[in-house]
UniProtKB/TrEMBL annotation:
Pfam families: QSregVF_b. This is DUF3820 family protein. It comes from Viridibacterium curvum. It comes from the Bacteria.
Length: 70
């Protein structure tokens, strides 16, 4: 993980699926949990979804709040 990855979470939209167009940082925990069980996609989007799942699972979503205000 890098600081840039945290910024990407608040700037990158989900490119497919039920929540297409939503920011990765706004995806609900149950959706992130589904990916954790079924497998994250390959590439950068999968890495970011995995990071967002970790933040959600550990109740650390608030770390992204200062980045949203930029």
């Amino acid at each position: 993980m890098s600081p840039e990855d945290l910024e990407r979470l608040v700037a990158t939209e989900m490119p497919f699926g039920k929540f297409k167009g939503h920011l990765l940082a706004d995806l609900p925990g149950h959706y992130l949990g589904w990916f954790a069980r079924e497998g994250f996609p390959k590439g950068q989007i999968g890495r970011l979804l995995s990071l967002m799942h970790e933040l959600d699972h550990n109740n650390l979503r608030a770390l992204l709040d200062p980045l949203r205000r930029r």
